Amino acid sequence: MDKNNITKEYTNGEVTIVWQSGKCIHSGMCVKNNPAVFHPREKPWIKPEASTSEEIMSAIDKCPSGALSYYKNEG
Description:
single chain, Alpha-Beta Plaits
């Protein structure tokens, strides 16, 4: 496994956040736009249960690198 290019998923049941470490440029936009969810100094660093799905999707839409994306879970 390439430690510099990891893909991880985090879900709150409604939406799943996809993080691709190899694309991340560390702009900090995720933290600035939703500090309740994104905690870069903690593990796990993404806590999707800490915010609404709408707020999570809005913050991810502002990610300049595309390292963060999401998909809505079915059902």
